[in-house]
Amino acid sequence: MTSKTAVNSTATARVLSGIQPSGVLHVGNYFGAIKQHIEHQDRFPGEAFYFIANYHSMTTVGDPQTLADLTQGVALDYLALGLDPAKATFYRQSDVPEVTELTWILSCVTGKGLLDRAVSYKDKVQQGINASVGLFTYPMLMAADILIVRSTMVPVGQDQTQHLEITRDIAGSFNAAYDTDIFPMPDTLLNDDAVVPGIDGRKMSKSYDNAVPIFATEAEIKAKVKRVKTSSTALGDPIDPETDTVFQLFRLFGNPDEVEELRNGYLAGEIGYGKSKEMLRSVMTGYFEPYRARREELENDSDYVEDVLQEGAKRARAEARFTVDRVREIVGLGAATRVGSAR
Ligand code: ADP
Ligand code: TRP
């Protein structure tokens, strides 16, 4: 049996996160996750890993062309929004197939009861998603994503914290079962906890038909803003900004002066929904304008986008190979187990 040796070569912090290509990315995804991912590339230069979790999306997206299109869409969105491949490693999960091997190995040290307690499986089944084995073992694959590059920090939203606990549990079980410290315990780096409301006032989500895509056209934005839920306050009466969906959205896009202007106008009964919606439409359209031009450029440069993903995969795969080779040795599947090799 291997004695406890330090195999983890990452002395510094390494950040990793994944985003599922299971729908068109929306404004909630941007303020709740993507914005922070992009900021972290400067905080952890060379040590930020972001990937498109297309294996995970197979649990919900059954149509091959849709999966391929959504995957490409996420790549374009991230690059347009400022992901810099010189600073962050950006790849498709399926280009690092070692992750599926690690998933299997980890599943052999994981009690089924741990997954029985996962709430996201139950939630998704309740939403009508097919109760496949893949959906049930989703957290195993996520643990493998995180552990395979030996990441130490995982920026995610509140809804993913249980998956991180499961990951730490699995890392601990493996380290203990094989008396090793190959896997560091990854910390959860909570994204801004502000939940972005959708146009109906509930949490914005691709599942609720209440989302505004990041790269919506001007006409789409106009139509969505028109549908934003409002109260029945009479014209000239004050509106409470804290409970108003138009304001909750506006504060994400407007600059501090504009936000103050709307807040004061609402409280004084001087701004009604006609005006506030017009203000929201205007800031929403303007906010992503520079990124939109960049996205169009990238759409016409598919070679560049594919190169970025291939390069990212090369880097991530080297890390993954390093981990899996050691894991194979540790569990008894490595070179030392070949017939005739000296014991
Ligand atoms: P959806 O709810 O549309 O299915 P996902 O679950 O795929 O979105 O979310 C991907 C990431 O975006 C998660 O880390 C999540 O925390 C973040 N996110 C999604 N919706 C919102 C929202 N309305 N407000 C804040 N963050 C969000
Ligand atoms: N489950 C995450 C979500 O739905 C996506 C994801 C897959 C992920 N693998 C990951 C996030 C690894 C962080 C680390 O948002």
Keywords for this structure?
mainly alpha, Rossmann fold, Tyrosyl-Transfer RNA Synthetase, 15 helices, 7% strand, binds adenosine-5'-diphosphate, binds tryptophan
Write a structural description.
- This protein is 52% helix and 7% strand.
- With 343 residues, it is mainly α.
- The chain folds into two domains: 15-196 and 295-338, 3-Layer(aba) Sandwich (Rossmann fold); 216-287, Tyrosyl-Transfer RNA Synthetase.
- Helix 1 links the parallel strand 1 and strand 2.
- Helix 4 (98-107) packs across helix 8 and helix 4 (98-107) runs parallel beside helix 15 (302-331).
- The radius of gyration is 23 Å and the shape is elongated.
- Mean pLDDT is 94; it is low at 1-10.
- Bound molecules: adenosine-5'-diphosphate and tryptophan.
- Adenosine-5'-diphosphate (ADP) is lined by residues 19-20, 28-29, 32-33, 156-157, 159-160, 195-196, 203-207.
Secondary structure elements and their pairing?
Elements: E1 15-19, H1 27-43, E2 48-52, H2 54-57, H3 64-80, E3 88-92, H4 98-107, H5 112-116, H6 119-126, H7 133-136, H8 138-148, E4 153-156, H9 161-177, E5 187-190, H10 218-226, H11 245-253, H12 256-267, H13 273-287, H14 289-299, H15 302-331
Parallel strand pairs: 1-2, 2-3, 4-5
Helix pairs in contact: 3-14, 4-8, 4-15, 8-9, 10-13, 11-13
Bound molecules: adenosine-5'-diphosphate (ADP) and tryptophan.
